[in-house]
Amino acid sequence: MKYFFKYMLVLFLLASCSKRNITYFSNLELQKGELYTTTNAIDPIRIQKGDELEVKVTTLDPESNLLFNYGVIANGEEEVGARTTYTQSRYKVSQSGEIDFPIVGKIELLGLTRDEAREKIASSLEKLVTNPRVELSITNFKITVLGEVNQPNTFTITTDNISVIEALGLAGDMTVYGKRENVLVIREHDGEKMLYRIDMNDKELLGSANFFLKQNDVLYIEADKKKLIQAEMNPTTIAFMTILSSVAVALIFNYQNIF
Q1: Which of 75, 101, 166, 178 could join 221 via S-S bond, C-beta 3.0 to 4.6 A?
Q2: Coiled-coil stretches, from where to where (predicted)?
Q3: Which helix (H) or strand (E) holds 54?
């Protein structure tokens, strides 16, 4: 009977101390000095409906700059023929995929990369001015990270691409309760929600197109079963289980003295 009691105590402790893999890319085995190389099939960010674009046009003609930017000269008087800096104008991509640009009119940009959009706007302007220079950025490029992270939030991204690792870094990394093997990504495309899961423990993610996020993506980190069980327990139950675990440890190490 005493062996049965001791055996049950050991089982209880093992059950309460289940092991989890919390190491990113844990199957990436490298020797010292060894390199791991992979090629990502990066799908460049493409302009979507509802994107807010900040467009800056610079030409050799100050009057043209005023027309195309709806701005004012930033540095006061400028020399004739010199390029000047103006405040940027913002344009929202309509449901038809177009922006309404000054003088030029509607320009369809849906599905284009930033470079392609710059070239298309510049090509439209070449009919009116000589050698226009166009700068374009997406000002409402945001991602959201929720769930088992230390700092869940919505983040504005100023670069063309952001990886899953970078997104987790912005959110303060996962907590120890985050399920690294089952991360959910929620993406909206053409008015439809797309959901897929990624495994942060698997090195194959490094060479996957899913390694990079797109504008308005939501990254959701699920909690493991242990955290869910704790959430369902009231504080009194959790305190009782903690005390019970401590008593069980004391019994095991002092079994001979007690019995």
Answers
A1: 178
A2: none
A3: strand 52-58
The whole-angstrom separation of Cα 252 and Cα 103 is: 84
Quote the pTM value. Answer: 0.69
Name the H helices within 98-191: 114-125, 164-170
Q: Which of 94, 114, 113, 91 is nearest to 102 (CA)?
A: 91
Under the banding of pLDDT at 50, 70 and 90, the label for residue 195 is very high
1 CB burial (10 A radius; 0-12, 13-18, 19+):
exposed
Q: Do 121 and 100 contact (CB within 8 A), yes or no?
A: no
Query: Using an 8 Å Cβ cutoff, are 177 and 191 in contact?
Result: no
Asked whether 93 and 53 are in contact (CB, 8 A), the reply is: yes
| Token pair belonging to 118 | 């710059």
Which of 32, 74, 37, 34 minimizes the C-alpha distance to 56? 74
At residue 117's C-alpha, the angle toward residues 210 and 135, to 5°, is 105
Q: Whole-angstrom distance between the N-terminal and C-terminal Cα of the chain?
A: 12
Report in angstroms the alpha-carbon separations of 137 from 56, 91, 93, 107.
9, 11, 13, 16
